[in-house]
Amino acid sequence: MIDTTLDGSGAASAAPARAGFRFRRRSRALKKAFPYLLVAPAVCFLLMITLYPGAYAIYQSLFYVKFNTWQFVGLDNYRDLFADREFWAALWNTLVIGGTALILECALALLIAYYAYRDPWVKGWRIIFLVPMLFMPSAVAFIWKLAFMDGRVISDLLMRIGLIESNIGWTSSVWLSRLTLIVADVWQWTPFLFIIFVAALQGQDEEIEEAARLDGASWPAIFWNISLPMMRPVIAVAVVLRGIDITTMFANVFIMTRGTPGGSTETISYFIYRIGFKTFNFGYASAASFVMLVITLVAAQFVVKRAFRSGRD
Asked: Which of 187, 181, 153, 183 is nearest to 167 (CA)?
C-alpha cells in the first residue's frame, strides 16, 4: 500500500513511499555485496603476500641484482641456470630425498590409517600419531641432529644391540647424510597424510564394504581392492600437497647437514638460499625460484589430472 498525502493544491504525493523503496533496493544490494566485503581484506592480504612477491621475483630474475645494483640481463640468468651443474644437482637431491621421504610417508600413513580405521585399540590412541606434526620444523631438525650427530644417540643404541662397533659419521657419507634428512621428514610429516587418509576411509560408503564382507572378502582384501582405489583422488591431492611442501625443505638441511658432504644434501631451497644470501646474487636466485615454481606446478597438474581421470574410470 502506497502512503499518499495531499499538498496545498490537492495533488497526491508519494515521496515517502519512493524513499522507502530506494532504501529497500539499497539494502538488497548491500546484502549481496556484504559477503564479498567480509572476505575482501583476506583476499587482498593473500594477494599481497603471494601475487606481488611472485611477480616481483619474475621481474627481478631479468636483472643482475646485487644490493642496490640493478643491471638488465634479460634471460641470461635462465641460460646460466640451465647450464649450472649445481642447480641440477640440487634438483636431483630434492627429487631423491623428497621422493624417498614421500613414498615412505604414504606407505606408513596408509598402514596406520588402515589399523586406526579397523582396530579399536589403535583407533583409541590415534591422537598420539599426531604429536610429531605439532613440533616446529626447526625444533624437529635440532632433535634429530642431537640424535644423529651431536648426542650420537642413534649410534649408541646401535652399538648396544650389537649392530655396529663404533660411532657412525652420519655426515661423512652421501647416503647416510640423506638418510638423516629422510628420517626427520618422515617422522614429522607422516601424521599429515595419516589425517587425510583416515578421513577418506571414514567418508567411504560402508554398504560397499559390508557387501564385500558378506561375499567372504577379508578386511585386507577389501582395503586393497575397494577402499584404496576409491581413495586414489584423495591420495593424489595429499601427495601433491606434501610434495609441494617437500620442494621447500630447508630447515632440516640448514640445521642438520648444511648441504654436506660435497653438496649431496643441498636441496633446491637451500641452493636458492645460498645463492641469494651468501653470494647475494638475487636475480639468479629469483630465476631459480621461478623455474622451480613452474616445475612444481606442471608436476602437480600432471599427478592430479591422472588421478582424477583414473578415479572416474
From this structure: 153
Contacts of 95 (CB under 8 A, 6+ apart): none
Task: Please choose, from the candidates 271, 266, 272, the residue with its C-alpha nearest in 3D space to the C-alpha of residue 253.
Answer: 266
Question: Residue 27: what pLDDT?
Answer: 73
> Is-above-0.70 flag for pTM?
yes
Place of cell 621428514: 185
Distance between CA atoms of 49 and 98, rounded to whole angstroms? 26
Range name among 39-48, 56-65, 114-123 with the lowest pLDDT average: 114-123
Cell of 298: 606442471
- CA 192 to chain CA centroid, Å, is 10
Asked if 86 contacts 271 with a C-beta cutoff of 8 angstroms, the reply is: yes
Residues 113-135 have a mean pLDDT of: 80
How far apart (Å, rounded) are the C-alpha atoms in residues 225 and 43?
42
Which pLDDT belongs to residue 1?
47
> Residue by residue, what is the 3-state secondary structure of the chain?
CCCCEECCCCCEECHHHHHHHHHHHHHHHHHHHHHHHHHHHHHHHHHHHHHHHHHHHHHHCCEEEECCEEEECCCHHHHHHHCCHHHHHHHHHHHHHHHHHHHHHHHHHHHHHHHHHHCHHHHHCHHHHHHHHHCCHHHHHHHHHHHHHHCCHHHHHHHHCCCCCCCCCHHHCHHHHHHHHHHHHHHHHHHHHHHHHHHHHHCCCHHHHHHHHHCCCCHHHHHHHHHHHHCHHHHHHHHHHHHHHHCCCCHHHHHHHCCCCCCCCCCHHHHHHHHHHCCCCHHHHHHHHHHHHHHHHHHHHHHHHHHHHHHHC
